[in-house]
């Protein structure tokens, strides 16, 4: 499938730009779920990690806590208004750098990261293959990818007044196949009411 990249990016910015200022007030109790998911990645002090589609930076303090002051925490998002909220929420100091970028085109060197954390990201990518392939490019072999949401697919669909469908990209069979073609191997998959977490490992090059 081909995409009009500029139109796709504009649509994401319009959608999330309009929601940015209210983002943190909608689900103020998600902090512990983010921290628990970050703990499950297996990051170590000194590691370098990217929060892909970081939004208002809800994961940044937990990522900093696990990699420590000697580690590197980066945040990337396509929506300027979301990045502006990071500072307003008092999370700017948790990151070494924040950049305005599409995760399918990152200004990072090959293999420079130990892990990528992406919360609520994958279903918003118009071209998930190119996004996941680019994330694989910037992560070292055996590095980690965590695709997270503080609620599972069924609970999220119910919240949005929708039904989950079998062609949902976050469904295990689809996600496993997609990861396998983009440089990742799915290691574990949890889709429960209070957590969606898929953990994958970067394949050797
Ligand atoms: C559902 S929000 C989640 C934000 C944050 N991770 C959280 O959990 O609070 C999705 C975020 O992904 C960003 N996003 C969507 N597509 C993107 C892309 N291609 N590259 C970078 N960021 C993207 C949006 O701007 C938005 O901030």
UniProtKB/TrEMBL annotation:
Annotated Pfam families: Methyltransf_11
Keywords: Methyltransferase, Transferase
Domain (Methyltransferase type) ranges: 50-146
Molecular function in Gene Ontology: methyltransferase activity
SUPFAM superfamilies assigned to the protein according to its UniProt record, in alphabetical order: S-adenosyl-L-methionine-dependent methyltransferases
Statement: the UniProt record of this protein carries the keyword Chaperone: no
Source species, domain of life: Bacteria
GO biological process: methylation
InterPro entries, per database record: Methyltransf_11, SAM-dependent_MTases_sf
PANTHER family linked to this entry: 2-METHOXY-6-POLYPRENYL-1,4-BENZOQUINOL METHYLASE, MITOCHONDRIAL, METHYLTRANSFERASE
Protein name according to UniProt: Methyltransferase domain-containing protein
Organism ancestry: Bacteria, Bacillati, Actinomycetota, Actinomycetes, Kitasatosporales
């Amino acid at each position: 499938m081909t995409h009009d990249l500029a139109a796709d990016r504009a649509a994401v910015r319009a959608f999330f730009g309009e929601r940015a200022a209210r983002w943190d007030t909608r689900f103020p109790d998600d902090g512990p779920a983010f921290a628990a998911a970050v703990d499950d990645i297996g990051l170590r002090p000194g590691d370098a990690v990217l929060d892909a589609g970081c939004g208002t930076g809800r994961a940044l303090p937990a990522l900093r806590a696990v990699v420590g002051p000697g580690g590197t925490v980066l945040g990337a998002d396509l929506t300027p208004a979301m990045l502006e909220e990071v500072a307003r929420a008092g999370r700017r100091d948790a990151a070494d750098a924040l950049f305005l970028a599409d995760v399918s085109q990152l200004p990072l060197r090959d293999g420079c990261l130990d892990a990528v954390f992406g919360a609520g990201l994958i279903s918003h990518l118009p071209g998930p293959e190119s996004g996941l392939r680019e994330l694989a490019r910037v992560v070292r072999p055996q590095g980690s990818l965590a695709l997270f949401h503080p609620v599972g697919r069924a609970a999220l669909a119910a919240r949005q007044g929708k039904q989950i469908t079998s062609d949902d990209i976050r469904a295990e069979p689809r996600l496993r196949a997609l990861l396998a073609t983009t440089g990742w191997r799915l290691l574990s998959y949890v889709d429960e009411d209070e957590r969606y977490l898929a953990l994958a490992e970067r394949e050797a090059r």
